[in-house]
Amino acid sequence: MSKSLAKASPPTSGDATERILAAAEKLFAESGFDAVSMNAVAELAGVSKANIFHHFSSKNALYLAAMRNACRRSTPLMDNLEGTSGTFVERLHHFARAHLAHLLENEQTSRLIQREVIENDPQRCQELAEQVFGDNFARLVAIMRSGQQRGELRADVDAGMVATLLIAANMFFFQSREVSRHLPDVTHLSDDPAAYSKLLVDILMHGILPPKQS
Amino acid sequence: MSKSLAKASPPTSGDATERILAAAEKLFAESGFDAVSMNAVAELAGVSKANIFHHFSSKNALYLAAMRNACRRSTPLMDNLEGTSGTFVERLHHFARAHLAHLLENEQTSRLIQREVIENDPQRCQELAEQVFGDNFARLVAIMRSGQQRGELRADVDAGMVATLLIAANMFFFQSREVSRHLPDVTHLSDDPAAYSKLLVDILMHGILPPKQS
DNA sequence: GTCTATATAATGATAGAC
DNA sequence: GTCTATCATTATATAGAC
Asked: What pLDDT score was predicted for residue A11?
């Protein structure tokens, strides 16, 4: 029995550190930093409170570790966009749908990041921008610019603004679902992300003005 | 000296109940429900903690009262939109600018509502939708529809989706300013809401596809 | 209506046995 | 690494004088 084989029977699933991180991510995402007690994390993770403090120096350290963990897992979203084939419209539509689906499938992480964004702490927001969103957003903008160079997209629109609008629409869908459900004019969309993406891309592509008739 | 004139010397400004509500709104907006202690509210309002419990039965009751107060104050935003003259494009541009300015000027209320939205409590979200957003959103959609009937706007776009997109873009600007500041491709916008609105309306109106060349 | 003083519970964090 | 037991602090909420 070599010493490296000794730890083959985890108490519940994964080692304690992972279970603590998973519990913390879930609870922080659901309720926010202040509403979550170390007691609650310990209970959900199936360890003692003191054990958490053995692995993480403070509640804040645990929160940051859970955040980094979630962000790291959330990064490779964009990887399929650049490889996608088809017209520019099709590729953008594909991205819009994939991005929204990603937000909804990883609801926990999305909420965690969203909470962090609205907290508005300058340093934390800078870290988020540079370490989490930066690359993906830049790649989305680059795709817009390449579309412009190829003439598939108006040359005089602001590429950053187009990307922003797309992300904004999806974030809004994600975070306002529960409210939209009770607004008569958009009820039909709040449960149908695919339909939402279709309408979004349609407007984004063609605008809302009537076609010229002269 | 009639009895109705007796209370003409407020301790700081407004009566205690108002000062408590103002303090609560500010602190809840800044930090969220759980991060705010009744002690902090009492200190900012210049009253004793016990006095707050005399006016409000619990911390939660205080929070709800502050929310309702803030929402009530935030309602009459839309009132100038319908009266505005000019082309449909001009009116929509005017609304986009006014709405974003409103969010930024009433940052406290905007944040308070935003926190409530992401909390996602079904009942609270329904109340928000029906009592706060409902009317204004419906009026915005109605304006879109009337624009469609007059031929100033494509008849086959979803009016609710256009309205959603407009609100989404503005909400996103408001809540992501601090992050956008560190995204290279949109830095130029995060401090210039007017420029943001202009780009937004341009894209919304004309779309991003190049004009037909045949 | 407003205060001081207090009750009671829960919080984040630590000590020290195993 | 994990636990039980405990610390000091702070929280919401109440009692009762004025």
From this structure: 53
